[in-house]
Design goal:
binds zinc ion; binds N-(aminocarbonyl)-beta-alanine; 21 strands; seven-stranded mixed beta sheet; Urease, subunit C, domain 1; 2 domains; TIM Barrel; 458 residues; alpha/beta
Length: 458
Amino acid sequence: MSKIIANGTIVTASETYRADVRIDGERISHIGKGIAPAPGDEVIDASGLLVMPGGIDAHTHLDLPVAGTHASDDFETGTRAAAFGGTTTVIDFVSPARGDGLMDSYRVWRGKAEGKACIDYGLHMSVVDERPEVFDELDDVIDAGMPTIKIYTAYPATLMISDGAILRLLSWASKRGALVVAHAENGGAIDELTRSIAAQGKTAPRFHLDARPAVLEGEATNRLIALAEAVDAPIGIVHVTCREALNAVRSARQRGLDVFAETCPHYLYLTEESLKAPGFEGAKFICSPPLRTRDDQKALWHALAAGDLDTVSTDHCPFNFHGQKELGLSDFRKIPGGLPGIETRLMLLWQGVRNGRITQNRFVELVSTAPARINGLLPRKGILAPDADADILLWDPERELTLDADVLHMNVDYSPYEGMRVKGAPAKVFSRGELVVDGETFVGTPGRGRYLKRIPTN
Ligand code: URP
Ligand code: ZN
Ligand code: ZN
């Protein structure tokens, strides 16, 4: 028995056209006009709906241990919320502590997802120390399906590695076809600013902004690109927030360098003003790099439309306001950093389609096809085509909802977008041919999501 999605409008990264989609088992078997159902086939009427490849969120931190607590979404609650928002694949960051074996950490992350993931998932590996054995372990990391390696130029006490180690890693990655992706902020300078701000007794959430100026994101972005250029390696810059970083990316690309860049919805919709809210409210908006200005937002939207940014991912890293963000009530340095977003990514970016900032096709490229291409998931994910996994999103451009915490499904006690009304939301979501979300109802099963072994693409 096949499933036929009939009467919808297909939207891919390059085309919009009327056609039906036949699904056999877990895969798309045919796309064409007027597909005739055979006896016993299930026909899903997609009249008035857009049919798109399911979203791919290439930047999540599920169940991440941070500062004595854990991100409040685990693989079950987080991937279920992702599905509610139209995302059918996440790529989470394996995050070893210094000294941990990379493959041991990989097994820990597989354990976190086991029996819980509601949609398919991949993993990136993070390298947070410079032990010589790290390089021995990296071949196994690639073989285990993680050709994307994350490094940090921030958080010197826990995650940052030196420029020398980054150079060595980039050189290794370029030989192996792997991609190094980087959190770009100048950690040493930020530590110094943080120390001097705290020494003046400035402990409220808004001082997080003063400690992490945009110019230090621009500096680190430029430096990372220079290191990549020096050894002729590609590099990805995650969560780009500001003009300074965008300028670095744009000028590198103009020189023909292979630089990929991502931004996140919170940088497109929220500004630093949220951190300046009275009392402790600003803690809800603490993430790194921090929220920036309206001018930076404008630059990011322009870059999305112009092709200077490749993907929109979430950096989903939620902490409850009560009990978790409150750990930093008396000191902004103790507020766990990160925002919830795994569920709201597509709905937020779609508002950019509605107001003419990006096209529907660019939307699909940014949330699905480009993340699949960059992360080695094509041709299985990120496209609608025969033989691709039937990860399909039926999108209702007329559906409206308010992005309040009690409407959403993420396991967190607040929403950064409280009161914000959006138009355009998922109607149905299929993961490998199985209906997992039907409007307001989750009909999938925890644990059905499979690990995606990815391959090097560079
Ligand atoms: O504040 C953030 N973004 N937390 C998540 C970890 C990271 O730096 O991406
Ligand atoms: Zn980061
Ligand atoms: Zn992150």
